[in-house]
Amino acid sequence: DFLLANHKRLTSSDFIDETNGKTALLKALLNIKDGKNEAVEVLLDIADKTGDLKELINSSYTDPCYKGQTALHIAIERRSFEYVKLLVQ
């Protein structure tokens, strides 16, 4: 509700780490425990409601270690088939 009321998106510069391009979705995927992180579904739902789902999913790192990697890359790296399926839908 906050994002909608303030015309913000999860891909707004307020919510992306300027030093490496990391979004909340990338952070959530990097913090999967036991194959799950409920924040992933919540973030995707919020992005869908604010109209930036595609942009959030396709946002990529600018950090030299992960440069160019998107949420899909991280989900694959973490061997999370459930999130891979969710991201490509």
TrEMBL record:
Its main location: membrane. Signal peptide: none annotated. It is a multi-pass membrane protein. GO terms for cellular component: plasma membrane. It is found in: Cell membrane. GO terms for biological process: calcium ion import across plasma membrane. GO terms for molecular function: calcium channel activity. Keywords: ANK repeat, Calcium, Calcium channel, Calcium transport, Cell membrane, Ion channel, Ion transport, Membrane, Repeat, Transport. Gene3D superfamilies: Ankyrin repeat-containing domain. ANK repeats lie at residues 67-89. PANTHER family: TRANSIENT RECEPTOR POTENTIAL CATION CHANNEL SUBFAMILY V MEMBER 2, TRANSIENT RECEPTOR POTENTIAL ION CHANNEL PROTEIN. This is Uncharacterized protein. It comes from Nothobranchius rachovii (bluefin notho). The gene is Nfu_g_1_019227.
